[in-house]
């Protein structure tokens, strides 16, 4: 599983509320450098650099679009093939004064609301960057599609409710076949599972709060969603997970006391109307 870093974790999708926007002017980056990645570049990363910066390495445009609109790969439709094959390095920054809140640079010192605000502001800036430099235009559709509901298994949950992580970390960390939750709300776990399974996962556990947990399963080469796709010729990193271990479905039930139910429901889809290769810096 290639590493995709957002901050220091696989994803920071907190449950805190948003601060009210005080400015009507859309957020954007002050400066942004976009260059094709080196042909021999390995690994992919998207790292937020609070409060207003972002560094992207060896990433396809498709991944940037899914981040900007907070969707999974299966929710993106249309566009030419190159958006998933050609890769870019991006360094983008905005003036610190553009931040409407006095947000700490260290994500571990942020409140849940500040983390959410920081990420939503960054998504807005990336959307502006995609529109300006890639001339991206989209429209939204809602389609009926298969999905999973994350529910509590018979016997009850086996996860530990916490106020906060002892070392201040909040979110998810892991690799192929392994996942550690650190003061993570369950919608965050559902979002991770959605990326792994290539299908929407809705948190219907009705369990509020934050949880510490550890999940281990045998990676399935047919699963992985956008996180499971590697560039041609690049091998997956070794996994310490037991290849004869449980599937992710069994591991959820046995280790966390949760299970996935197959259902159907409305799924938002982003449809690409226009996109072009980036303008020169």
The count of helical stretches stands at 4
Approximate strand percentage? 25-35%
- What is the distance, rounded to the nearest whole angstrom, between the alpha carbons of the first and last residues? 32 Å
Q: Mean pLDDT, rounded to whole units?
A: 82
Proportion in helices = 10-25%
**How many β strands by DSSP?**
12
Description:
With 281 residues, the chain is an alpha+beta fold. It has helices spanning 61-68, 112-133, 186-197, 248-256, and strands at residues 31-36, 45-49, 53-60, 76-77, 87-93, 137-152, 160-162, 171-175, 178-184, 201-203, 210-216, 258-274. The strands form three sheets. It has a four-stranded antiparallel beta sheet. It has a four-stranded mixed beta sheet with strand order 4-12-6-10. It has a four-stranded antiparallel beta sheet with strand order 7-11-9-8, with helices on one face. The longest helix has 22 residues, at 112-133. The chain is globular. It starts with 30 loop residues before the first strand and ends in a 7-residue tail after the last strand.
In short:
It contains four helices and twelve strands. By secondary structure, it is of the alpha+beta class. The strands form three sheets. Strands 1-5-3-2 form a four-stranded antiparallel β-sheet. A four-stranded mixed β-sheet has the order 4-12-6-10. A four-stranded antiparallel β-sheet has the order 7-11-9-8, with helices on one face.
Summarize this structure as a short list of keywords or feature phrases:
alpha+beta, four-stranded antiparallel β-sheet
């Amino acid at each position: 599983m290639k590493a995709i870093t957002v901050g220091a974790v696989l994803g920071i999708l907190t449950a805190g509320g948003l601060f009210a926007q005080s400015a009507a002017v859309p957020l954007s980056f002050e400066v942004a450098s976009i260059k094709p990645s080196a042909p021999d570049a390995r690994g992919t990363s998207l790292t937020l650099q609070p409060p207003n910066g972002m560094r992207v390495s060896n990433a396809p445009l498709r991944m940037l679009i899914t981040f900007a609109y907070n969707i999974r790969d299966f929710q993106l439709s249309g566009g030419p093939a190159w958006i998933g094959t050609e890769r870019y390095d991006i360094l983008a920054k905005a003036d610190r004064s553009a931040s409407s809140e006095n947000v700490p640079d260290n994500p571990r010192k942020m409140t849940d609301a500040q983390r959410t605000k920081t990420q939503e502001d960054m998504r807005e800036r990336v959307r502006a960057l995609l529109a300006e430099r890639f001339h991206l235009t989209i429209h939204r559709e809602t389609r009926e599609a298969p999905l999973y509901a994350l529910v509590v298994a018979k016997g009850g949950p086996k996860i530990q409710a916490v106020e906060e992580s002892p070392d201040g970390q909040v979110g998810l960390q892991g690799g192929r076949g392994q996942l550690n939750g650190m003061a993570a709300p369950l919608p965050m776990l559902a979002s991770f599972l959605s990326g792994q399974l290539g299908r929407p996962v809705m948190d219907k556990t009705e369990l509020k709060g934050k949880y510490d947990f550890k999940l281990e399963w045998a990676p399935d080469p047919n699963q992985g969603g956008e996180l499971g796709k590697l560039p041609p010729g690049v091998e997956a990193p070794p996994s310490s997970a037991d290849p004869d271990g449980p599937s992710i479905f069994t591991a959820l039930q046995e280790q966390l006391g949760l299970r996935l139910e197959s259902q159907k429901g409305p799924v938002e889809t982003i449809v690409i109307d226009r996109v072009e290769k980036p303008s020169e810096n």
